[in-house]
Amino acid sequence: MNDAYIIDLFWKRDENAIKIVDEKYNSFCFSIAWRILTNREDSEECVNDTWFAAWKYIPPKKPSRLSAFLGKITRGFAIDMLRKKYAVKRMDMHIMEIKEEVEDLNIAVVQNFEENIEEEELIEIINGFLSGMSERDRDIFVQRYWGMEPLKHIAKRHQISEGAVKQNLLRNKRKLRKLLEKEGRL
Question: Which of 91, 84, 103 is nearest to 46 (CA)?
Answer without folding.
Answer: 84
